[in-house]
Design brief:
Blueprint (H helix, E strand, L loop, with lengths): L12 H4 L9 E3 L5 E6 L5 E6 L3 E6 L4 E7 L5 E6 L5 E5 L4 E4 L8 E3 L6 E6 L5 E6 L3 E6 L5 E5 L5 E6 L5 E6 L3 E6 L6 E4 L4 E6 L5 E5 L3 E5 L5 E6 L5 E6 L5 E6 L4 E5 L4 E6 L6 E6 L5 E6 L3 E6 L25 H6 L38 H4 L7 H10 L1 H4 L13 H14 L3
Antiparallel strand pairs: 1-28, 2-3, 3-4, 4-5, 6-7, 7-8, 8-9, 10-11, 11-12, 12-13, 14-15, 15-16, 16-17, 18-19, 19-20, 20-21, 22-23, 23-24, 24-25, 26-27, 27-28
Helix pairs in contact: 4-6
Protein name: Cytochrome c domain-containing protein
Keywords: Electron transport, Heme, Iron, Metal-binding, Signal, Transport, WD repeat
Organism: Bradyrhizobium niftali
Length: 430
């Protein structure tokens, strides 16, 4: 299974080079899932990043794209506004680009990570930029003198990073089930082991740390790492997390399209936004604390009233057809459901973030025509069979296919792995 998170360069390139017409409360222009959303301090501008390798700067006043930023060679997984009006984007290519609005090329490119970057955080004094990477490290880059500090300790992918409001610590979370609270400017970190892999972290204005996990739960802790409550946000992995500026609300985005609005102080789900269906990869509040933006697998950014749950403007919701509807009750199909976000089973379906799996078994890794694979995958001799796919999920993509951009995931049960490969044999040979 040629499993990466890199889009083919041809996906809707032409449409992104054309002027984008306003869309009422719906920002449409990306050619792939919206992986990151950042909001400017004044709430007038949005910066989004996508699996289509582009970032877009949007005006909320006109609800249209002001600039398409093209630099990264892979998915743009993280975005941030800096204190001086500039912007930062980072992605699967392991690079951070610093942009001035209106300029066609980055002012500066920060290198050093050896794996995809999936999270960015700006320090409260706006002097530093922290980045979280699947290379198991966190890096803190000075925006003034270019100096970099590398924080090492995570044993697996680092999926999120956030500065404390007072700037005295930095928090990172990872797939290794750990929260690291790094004192700044230096010192020994506090390490907290959690019950499930962690995909996201945010810190409230009063310093409470909130983590989003693969088991669908939010877990809260004090600034020094003491357990402080939890909320079941949904049944599927949380992949996006945001806290309103006043600290009252938490929004989560999940792999199954669920968006939960949580009352942070009451530790309860207020409501769930309906009708999204496909994965929601990014969420962000506007400064008013009531308006929520969500970034979906369909490449659109939608606006919501988080207090009422109502869609604002012309959000085109509907319920996308379930690509696995024909396999109801099939255990292998349920094992495959997490893969639907990135892979199709048929060449006739619109391509997603990863290559189609049509004709999978018997195909050499990284050999599918028309898709850009990493050099590391091209150099491997793996041929996809039920046995090699099973091995992929037994030991994990990072170990079996080093250099892949596929999210780290494993299937511990041999029975579950066999159900998956039996399903793929049936579904991809049509």
């Amino acid at each position: 299974m040629d499993l990466t998170l890199r889009l083919a360069t041809a996906v809707l390139t032409a449409s992104l080079l054309l002027p984008l017409r306003p869309a009422q409360a719906q920002l449409a222009g990306h050619g792939g899932p919206v992986r990151a959303i950042a909001v400017s301090i004044d709430g007038k501008t949005v910066l989004s990043g996508s699996f289509d390798t582009a970032a877009i700067r949007w005006s909320l006043a006109t609800e249209s794209a002001e600039q398409v930023l093209r630099f990264h060679s892979g998915a743009v997984n993280a975005a941030a506004f800096l204190g001086d009006g500039r912007m930062a984007t980072a992605g699967a290519d392991g690079q951070i680009a610093i942009w001035t609005p209106g300029r066609l090329q980055p002012d500066q490119v920060i290198e050093g990570h050896t794996g995809p970057i999936v999270g960015l955080a700006v320090s409260p004094d706006t002097s530093k930029l922290a980045s979280a990477s699947w290379d198991h490290t966190v890096r803190i880059s000075s925006l003034s003198d270019g100096g970099t500090r590398v924080l090492q300790g995570h044993s697996q992918s680092v999926n999120g990073v956030a500065f404390a409001p007072d700037g005295k610590s930095l928090v990172s979370v990872g797939y290794d089930l750990t929260v690291w609270i790094w004192p700044l400017p230096g010192g020994s970190p506090e390490i907290v082991v959690m019950p499930a892999p962690l995909n996201a972290v945010a810190i409230s204005p009063d310093g409470e740390i909130v983590t989003g996990a693969a088991d669908g739960k939010l877990r809260m802790m004090t600034a020094d790492g003491k357990e402080n409550g939890e909320v079941v946000a949904g049944a599927r992995p949380i992949v996006a997390l945001a806290i309103s500026q006043d600290g009252a609300l938490i929004a989560t985005g999940a792999i199954d399209g669920t968006v939960a609005i949580v009352d942070r102080r009451a530790r309860s789900v207020m409501r769930t936004l309906a009708g999204l269906g496909a994965p929601v990869w990014s969420v962000a509040f506007l400064p008013d604390g009531a308006t929520l933006l969500t970034g979906g697998a369909d490449g659109k950014i939608r606006r919501w009233n988080a207090l009422t749950g109502a869609a604002i403007g012309s959000n085109v919701l509907g319920t996308p057809a379930d690509p696995l509807a024909a396999y109801v009750g099939d255990h292998g199909a349920e094992m495959f459901r997490a893969c639907v976000a990135c892979h199709t089973l048929s060449e006739t379906e619109v391509q997603r973030a990863g290559p189609t799996l049509a004709g999978l078994f018997g195909r050499k890794i990284a050999s599918l025509p028309g898709y850009r694979f990493t050099d590391a995958l091209k150099a491997m001799d793996i041929v996809w069979t039920p046995e090699t796919v099973s091995k992929l999920f037994e030991i994990g993509p990072n170990a079996y296919t080093p250099g892949t951009k596929m999210p780290e995931q494993r299937i511990g049960s041999a029975e579950d792995r066999r159900a998956l490969t039996d399903f793929l044999a049936r579904a991809t040979s049509k």
